[in-house]
Design a protein that fits this description.
Oligomer: heterodimer
Largest sheet of chain B: 2 strands, antiparallel
Radius of gyration of chain A: 36 Å
Number of strands of chain B: 4
Radius of gyration of chain B: 23 Å
Structural class of chain A: mainly alpha
Number of domains of chain A: 4
Largest interface: A-B, 18 and 23 residues
Helix content of chain B: over 70%
Shape of chain A: flat
Number of strands of chain A: 0
Number of helices of chain A: 21
Largest sheet of chain A: none
Order of helices and strands of chain A: HHHHHHHHHHHHHHHHHHHHH
CATH superfamily of one domain in chain B: Cytochrome Bc1 Complex, Chain C
Helix content of chain A: 55-70%
Order of helices and strands of chain B: HHEHHHHHHHHEHHEEHHH
Distance between the termini of chain A: 127 Å
Distance between the termini of chain B: 64 Å
Structural class of chain B: mainly alpha
Strand order of the largest sheet of chain B: 1-2
Number of helices of chain B: 15
Amino acid sequence: MRKSALIFFCITLALLFVTTAAQSQEKTEFGADDQCIVCHLEIDFLPADFSNADIHLQKGLSCAGCHGGDVMSDDVEIAKRAEAKFTGIPTKKDIAGMCGKCHSDISFMRKYQPRISVDQARQYKQSVHGQKLAQGDTKVADCSSCHTAHSILSATDARSTIYSLNVPKTCTKCHGDQAYMADYNIPTTQYDEYVESVHGKALLEKQDVGAPACNDCHGNHGAMPPGIVSISHVCGACHVNNQDFFSKSKMANEFADADLHACEECHGVHDIKNTFDDMVGTGETSTCTECHGEGETGYQVAQQIRSHLGDLVAVYDSASILLKNVEHVGMDVLDMSYAVKDAKQSLTQARTLVHTFDSELVQTKTEEGKTSARHALHLGNAEMEELRFRRFGFGVATFFMTIVLAALYFKIKDIEKE
Amino acid sequence: MLKKTMQKTYHWLDERFKITPLVEFMSHKQVPVHKHSLWYYMGGVALFLFVIQVVSGILLLLYYQPGIDSAFESVQFITTKVSFGWLFRSVHSWSANLMVFFVFVHMFSTFFTRTYKKPRELTWVTGSVLLLLSLFFGFSGYLLPWNELAFFATKVGTDIAGAIPFIGEPIKLLLRGGEGVTGATLSRFYAFHVALIPAAFTILLFLHLLFVQRQGMHEPEFFQKLPENKKRMMPFFPNFVLRDALLWLLVLNVILYLAVFFPWEIGVKADAFAPAPQGIKPEWFFMFMFQALKLLPAHIFLMEGEVFGILFFAIAGTVWFTVPFWSVFIKENLRLKLMKLFGIIVIAFILILTIWGYLD
């Protein structure tokens, strides 16, 4: 009896030790300054998106930082009393204000990131999402819709919902849901179009973070579809020369007068594909002929521009093929490759100059390119000629060597006969 | 008139240097004629290729500039701007490879005809050192264009040298002129290639040829057993020399063909910070050793696999180069068969591993 009691006592002691050790393990992780998480872990009642990697948690801003309450107390009644300023789960309308409490205060934020902007809440209020929320629409996005609530990560963190590669998926959560977006008069096909577009492929397939995601054109916190005039400015943020040429051309005003959406008219918006020369001109795939009919000035200009581009492309292609051939046979391609690069540069510039809708300007550039390409052809042909010379020279040398070989052979035969 | 001038010149030299006995000696030199006579020409071909290397090398030396900022560019300059620079560069590269090949052929042909036997032991030894110097010529010359392949081949090769126990690290530092393959490595490989090795090679080649000329051509056993009247011979001068000249002219033509139709590429300039290209391989004459080292497991008999491999090759090399001295201890009736087998195993080993290395 005494023995079994002793064993029972030892086992109980051991179990107590193990469980308290486990608890103190958790306590050690969050320390005495975070009783919110300690308790919530104990009762296994944490938000679904809770993550230890959350940036607020990492910087020491625990639950109380947003929800209020007494973080030091392990008594739920004391921790959540009104005097401890416990606010509980905020309503959708309160979220921007709650985040803005810190994020709009530079004197607070500079401690963590001196260069961070503090106008997110103000921008949000002016955005479509913010305006609709103010009108009572609770379906729109708030801060936590994009940033999450409890697993917020920096935009430079590849795991973050707002990391450039993840932005399209974040926006599509709502904007791609047909049922969810049924009340609004906007399509839900943007994501599907975007992934097939040149920007989508660059960002999502090639992982080029320089390529635009939704926020690059629509804005982050002040998200709004760009207006008709501002579309070219949005595109022009990256495609500087194209926008510059377009805005200075006579087409800019005519587009605006006709309510045409600048870049979008020819290139599309979410479904922008790689451009090709036949988008200009009068062929089947031309965008010019959507407005300009045969006989019009615009039709003729389109034809001329297409013709200039085509001429340069033909010479450039010949030079490129010859460059490959010269390289393949082992001849010098150094100077020729520079000339071909110059021609390519001119071609790129000529294609950009299409946005001036001025065939003379395009022609000046294509002539420049053709000069470079012809120079490359000249160099390449010289190399191939040199190759032929070398092989011919080898033939001549072999001919004379064969004569000497034959002479030697007969001399040897002669000597050995003796 | 030419004959008279030559006679006058000969007389002038003979008066001062007494060259008549030497000429007499040389004019009586005979070369045995038998079914294996073809192999007598291999050494001469290797010699001819060495001469081509010297001539083309001197021409390249006029334009080549060592240094990480000028080596690659100077080779580019030679192949694109210098008159016939492309020819000399390709000739030098092709001839280098052919020279190593013919040195191997010459070595194996003398091995199988047992030319290394007494009294020609030192001819074999000097020849062995010449082989090693040829390989070192190839290894040092390969780096000089300072292109990507050469850079990494040198890195891998000197890393392997560094794996030799005890002396490996100092050897690696000596070869590289520092920890990594840098401009210092290029400078000293240049010094090795144009000064040190040519000097050593010339001395040894002179000795090797002196021994051959002094002792005459080796007669294989079956030829020695023939009665004197059945032994077919040809005079070294002019018969063998003319035949040599014919073969050398043919070899020259082959090199020119290779240089014109398969020009040696310049490659991409070496970048120490770039990763090694996929499937980096050494030059073909090191491939069998490289492949063997690759195939060895990480550890063998408590030793690192690589160290075991290097020691194996060091021992094998020593055994091979001292063949004349230990083969005498094999019983005479077994000697021929065993040595033949030994030679076949060595050739098979080299061939199979070389092919395997390229297929890998």
